[in-house]
Amino acid sequence: MTRRERYEAHQRRRSLVIASVSSVTVVAALYFLVPLAPGWSKVQQSFFNGDTLVKTFPKLLEAFRINVMIFLWSAPAIAVLGLLIALARDAKSPALFPLRIFGAAFTDIFRGVPVILTVYLIGFGIPGLGLPRPWNSPYIWGSLALILTYSAYVAEIFRSGIDSVHHSQRAAALSLGLSEQQVMRDVVLPQAIRNVVPSQMNMLIALQKDVSLLSFIGPVEIFRQAGVFKSLLANFTPYVGAAIIFLIVTIPATRYADHLMARQMRERR
Amino acid sequence: MPKLELQGVIKRFGDRTVCDGIDLTVDEGQMVCLIGASGSGKSTLLRCINLLEPIEDGAIFLDGEDISIPGLNPQSVRARIGIVFQSFNLFPHMNALENVMLAPRRVRGLTRAELQPEVEALFARFGLADRMHNYPDQLSGGQQQRVAIVRALAMQPEVMLFDEITSALDPQLVGEVLDVLLMLKKQGMTMVMATHEMGFAREAADKICFLDSGRILEGGPPETVFGNPKHQTTQAFLARALK
């Protein structure tokens, strides 16, 4: 072992010991101190009730299928609409000027209004027109609200991706005689989309959580189902159960997005 | 009639004049080398010829046809004039073969199958037959630059422009790229290149143009410009470059 390796091994052992001791201390403090709070037994009873959790968990899981369903049909629509808006905002020909204005207005409006407000306005407003079934379904209009809001964000991310492709790539493609549209489709977009995959992953995770906002206009998805159980059993544990179900999905997804992001940083360096 | 002719070409970026009245004629099959310090306007001039930069004034003729008319669709001109850049600019998301086939497929309207024999022959001619399916990041600088040349040639251009194509290469890779240029010259390709490779320019070029502050200060056969430079600026530049 060289001098340097001995030093580094020593440093590693030292960091490991410090990290372990500090983690154990923090966990132990929480474990012993939190129950000392005056309201702890009540909180434990109403939020961390094992029996209630076991009893309601299967039903919550079933309700979560609605979240997944709404997510699954909204996500592709968001990807397509987001890309179209991004392209509209970069349109250069004067004939497409209205498209640019529309794209800009779209992103300004839907990024500027809280998601819940958009869900309310569209989810209650459009069925209020007296549309016949099934066109008055909150599933349709709630999903539309999510699609519009998320498209605005996703479009901006696509645009940053388009900007991230070096202009020399455009010059090289143009110099070969390709048209502006061909340059965009064959050279710029494929690179732009690849560059923004990690950021878009984060949008997907956010969308998965925001599907719960539709509960405010009707669909009995997991958050609403937990609320039903809360009223029925006079206990908040179902909310904790719902949180656990979300985490089971979102933690791996977040880790994966971080992994993609880290890999991209390495490649750029 | 010259293959390519520039008359009083002026290019400005803001209030900076980069090309200040350039006159140049290039005959069919000639190799013209543009030399001069960095920032003297060599690269910009090449980009103007390829219509990547619109010119402020003057005119550019290809086969006697004015290609610098404002508003002219540049696509058909660019398809006839190939350019290769210092930084290769291969498309990183495509392998070498796809890089080369993209423009002929889109612009010449040919299918992959139709192009296959012609493109394979090009790869083979430039010693890249076993590299067709590699992505740019799996190729050396010299290989990438040769793929970039093949990519431009696949459009069957009448004129080729080379913008300091060996400047980003390790010294031991410069030779393989310069050899490609000699091959093209032998085949009668009309070429204009900006270069810092004075030895190569002196041996291979038919004509040397020395650029200084956006003007051609001195031009002529290599023996004259290198052997007996008239201007003091040229003498000073060559003294530094040939040291």
TrEMBL record, chain A:
Keywords: Amino-acid transport, Cell membrane, Membrane, Transmembrane, Transmembrane helix, Transport. This is Amino acid ABC transporter membrane protein, PAAT family. Pfam families: BPD_transp_1. It is a multi-pass membrane protein. SUPFAM superfamilies: MetI-like (SSF161098). Part of the binding-protein-dependent transport system for glutamine; probably responsible for the translocation of the substrate across the membrane. The keyword Disulfide bond does not apply. Residues 64-257 form the ABC transmembrane type-1 domain. Belongs to the binding-protein-dependent transport system permease family. HisMQ subfamily.
Automatic annotation (TrEMBL), chain B:
One of its GO terms (molecular function) is ABC-type amino acid transporter activity. InterPro entries: AAA+_ATPase, ABC_ATPase_HisP-typ, ABC_transporter-like_ATP-bd, ABC_transporter-like_CS, MetN_ABC_transporter-like, P-loop_NTPase. GO terms for cellular component: plasma membrane. SMART domains: AAA. The keyword Phosphoprotein does not apply. It is a peripheral membrane protein. Keywords: Amino-acid transport, ATP-binding, Cell membrane, Membrane, Nucleotide-binding, Transport. Residues 4-238 form the ABC transporter domain. Belongs to the ABC transporter superfamily. This is Amino acid ABC transporter ATP-binding protein, PAAT family. It comes from Ruegeria halocynthiae.
